[in-house]
UniProtKB/TrEMBL annotation:
Membrane topology: Multi-pass membrane protein
Keyword GTP-binding: no
InterPro entries cross-referenced by the UniProt entry: EMP70, MFS_trans_sf
Protein name per Swiss-Prot or TrEMBL: Transmembrane 9 superfamily member
Localization terms from the record: Endosome membrane; Golgi apparatus membrane
Key words of the record: Endosome, Golgi apparatus, Membrane, Receptor, Signal, Transmembrane, Transmembrane helix
Family indicated by similarity: Belongs to the nonaspanin (TM9SF) (TC 9.A.2) family.
GO biological process terms, semicolon-separated: protein localization to membrane
This protein's GO CC annotations: endosome membrane; Golgi membrane
N-terminal signal peptide: 1-25
Major location category of this protein: membrane
Amino acid sequence: MENSMAAAVVIALLVLFGTDQGTFGASDHRYKEGETVPLYANKVGPFHNPSETYRYFDLPFCSPDNVKDKTEALGEVLNGDRLVSAPYKLDFRSEKDSEVVCKKELSKEQVALFRSAVMKDYYFQMYYDDLPIWGFIGKVDKENRDPSDYKYYLYRHINFDIFYNKDRVIEINVRTDPHAVVDLTKDKEVDVEFLYTVKWKETNIPFDKRMDKYSQSSSLPHHLEIHWFSIINSCVTVLLLTGFLATILMRVLKNDFVKYAHDEESAEDQEETGWKYIHGDVFRYPKYKSLFAASLGSGTQLFTLTIFIFILALVGVFYPYNRGALFTALVVIYALTSGIAGYTATSFYCQLEGTNWVRNLLFTGCLFCGPLFLMFCFLNTVAIAYNATAALPFGTIVVIVLIWTLVTSPLLVLGGIAGKNSKAEFQAPCRTTKYPREIPPLPWYRGTVPQMAMAGFLPFSAIYIELYYIFASVWGHRIYTIYSILFIVFIILLIVTAFITVALTYFQLAAEDHEWWWSYFSPLLKSITSRGDVDHLMIEEDLEAREYFIAELESRFFFLAADAQSTLRGWRPSYRNVLLSVRKKLNIRCSSKLSTEDLEVEIFLHLLQDYSSDELGTFSSSNDQGSLELGLSQKKVHTLDAMRELRSILLKGGGMYTLAKIYQLVARRLSGKVFIEAANYQIKKEFIKKIRITRTYRLPTKAD
């Protein structure tokens, strides 16, 4: 399923961007002398805030007679481009000198609007034959230090220097005449005559190299040594982390394996600690498994999306100022890879024995798109309020909704169906206990905040240098073009993240904390999903199951469980570990790998054998005392009946003498105040309940 989905994505991207490259290829950029070359005005905005942009004609510039909007692709609209026909006529190889664009009388409101734009260092952006050009609309004279004495000037003369190679446009530069300005300092009407000059020059630069200028002059330093230093720093971090983890983990695991690699009897006598102590709880299903599976599916989809984006970047699709190519790729790839999310989430959810896979699909589809949609609604509302170009038109919103409805959702459902039908049963290497073990309290340095700091610091240290350039590209006018180095750093980031995840997960298991599923994503998510001050032993169990569990504790081996209500409070070992402790203290020769029921049988048989060898002779006088009417003369039959009677009394929670015998054999040998107090309590309670049975059977005491 995933392979076919990936192949479909590759084919779609090749068709999409293959068509895109043909549209903007060399064959579409040949002109004859005097032929009109398209010039589009895009947007204006403050230089220090590239995210704040407005339409070009929101400022009162000269406009052509017929303002035509350029038909834009989805990515261009998402990028905030709003291209319209510009008022300048730049015909191929046609020079002009101080050509008048228009004469215009600016009102006080228009003067104030221009002055505010000049005060904020507004710039304009245009595209000439798909080549970007920029220029400032004015300047501020700050000769006087007092801001009230500043003077504001509007440029009214623009010079275009265009370079060509045969019949193709290669380069264009814009210069503003600093002497041809209009004073906008005062609130008064101003007459302005806008001019422009066009100069053509020949160059030998080939057409396929004309975008190299923007790759090299994208305001980023060309010193690749900085980027290589980043890679070397990241590699050193990986090596140190690898060596550290390999040394620590292998030493610890080696000791553990040596400890448990002795003969069976020696291994059984050792106390289970650390990760082996909770082997029966490690594979317990996580809480909120539907949300967990949805997170895994969405993460897999986003990881696949990132890989495809890197592939397109490395093959040269995202060349500088290829308007909207990145946004188009993001939308298309996300829509086509939704099947991967559905397949991964549903298959994993079904492995966790989930039943409501339809709800899981809804979680998967909304987990990423839901918060993204809410954020978009807020930001788009703000953009509409400020009339910014970041506000998406209604038609674009409809297109995105149709893509999500007709492409993303069906592929998500198909992937979910495929994942449900192809699920494999989850095979844990060991049996999971029925009830979860209580997690012991951890020191502060193993809490959520220290784990978050450790889990985030090392991956951040591996990529922080590249992050500077990425943020400079996202929040500034700079362009990131070194995708090969970024891909190497991304691979290093994955390695560091994997190592730190393995280390933190092992340390968590070594601390006997078996709730590792959510911390595998993030320690913060674990702290959110964990419940504080709750009874971990009975978590996710309803009241009826709790009462049933307590009743089981009191009815099965009650002399060890004793007061179940108080035993469940605070730290207490599980019922199985109690049996293992009894087996060890009584030196019973049986394997510790037996099931709980088999352990009970072995201990019962041992107690019966011990009773028959030590106290069986006392039953010979039971006929005289009338406590047990066996009515048999042969010793063999007498012995079998006595053992059968004792077994019946023992399994049913028999008389006072049986309780006293168990107390002597078990409670006296067990170390720990808890069990002695529990046994004392249970004997006192059973003494009152069984007094009539004792009088009836008249079992002999030790004194007899």
